[in-house]
Amino acid sequence: MSSKFTREEIEKELKDILVNDFEIDEAKITPDANLFEDLEFDSIDAVDLAVRLQDYTQKKISPNNFKQIKTINDVICAIEEIVK
Q1: Which of 10, 50, 72, 84 is the most exposed place for a label (fewest CB within 10 A)?
Q2: Fold topology of 7-82
Q3: Whole-angstrom distance, CA of residue 12 vs CA of residue 53
Q4: Claim: this prediction has a pTM higher than 0.85
């Protein structure tokens, strides 16, 4: 897999992970959806998501980067930064 992902590819993979692994209704997954308030994530879910995204990108995600993530758009932007 290429080390360069498009924003659309990242968004599609993120949606697939959230729907298939976390059983979140795809209709709730919008750029402004808050992981913790709108999608009912807890800290364990956030760690699980980080691990799945590391598997997807083959890049290490630092805990400090992930602590600042609140929305779906934040996740996509963080992954874009990691895979640059």
Answers
A1: 84
A2: 1.10.1200
A3: 12
A4: yes
